[in-house]
Amino acid sequence: MPEQQQQQQQQQEQTTTGGQQQQVKMVLVVAVALIDSQHRLLLAQRPPGKAMAGLWEFPGGKVDAGETPEAALVRELQEELSIQVEPRDLQPLTFASHTYDSFHLLMPLYVCRKWSGQLRGVEGQQLAWVSPRQLHDYPMPAADVPLVAPVLQAMEAGRTISA
Ligand SMILES: Nc1nc2c([nH]c(=O)n2[C@H]2C[C@H](O)[C@@H](COP(=O)(O)OP(=O)(O)OP(=O)(O)O)O2)c(=O)[nH]1
């Protein structure tokens, strides 16, 4: 095997088996940019007592073992917001890949414009419907910052399509 290829393989093995490299705890979270007919985005505030309390995030949560990201998101939206979403109405938009102090977050972000049910914060979390202009007034977790531009684009695209 050529030396370069051998080095690449060794690097891969170290990353996947732990080898000499530092182990990374990878956390898979799935989240949604829920956009309503007035082109506003739903943000949820992280409650007191949790990590990053007070920051505004995209609704969602951890993907359980054996679950697809879409199934996890459908479940989380039912549990957190009491709404029903069809997997086909979840459009992949972008993802976050961010290293926090104690874990690495990998978070696919979907856009959803269609749901049923009466939306409410089931866990008592504060919710806000936010216009593109207001979005910068809502402090978000570090991982979410690079997602703001694509989300704004999706909000604007919806406005153009429905105009
Ligand atoms: N749902 C969501 N989570 C986010 C966003 N940005 C971000 O860094 N996260 C982080 C916060 C948490 O560490 C993790 C979400 O998992 P979670 O909601 O199940 O975790 P949690 O800390 O609220 O609660 P727990 O179940 O671990 O007690 O992802 C976001 O926009 N939406």
Automatic annotation (TrEMBL):
The keyword Metal-binding applies. Residues 25-153 form the Nudix hydrolase domain. Its EC number is 3.6.1.55. Keywords: DNA damage, DNA repair, DNA replication, Hydrolase, Magnesium, Metal-binding, Mutator protein. Pfam families: NUDIX_4. InterPro entries: MutT-like (IPR047127), MutY_C (IPR029119), Nudix_hydrolase (IPR020476), NUDIX_hydrolase-like_dom_sf (IPR015797), NUDIX_hydrolase_dom (IPR000086). It catalyses: 8-oxo-dGTP + H2O = 8-oxo-dGMP + diphosphate + H(+). GO terms for molecular function: 8-oxo-7,8-dihydrodeoxyguanosine triphosphate pyrophosphatase activity; 8-oxo-7,8-dihydroguanosine triphosphate pyrophosphatase activity; 8-oxo-dGDP phosphatase activity; 8-oxo-GDP phosphatase activity; metal ion binding. GO terms for biological process: DNA repair; DNA replication. Its cofactor is Mg(2+). Gene3D superfamilies: Nucleoside Triphosphate Pyrophosphohydrolase. Belongs to the Nudix hydrolase family. This is 8-oxo-dGTP diphosphatase. It comes from Tetradesmus obliquus (Green alga).
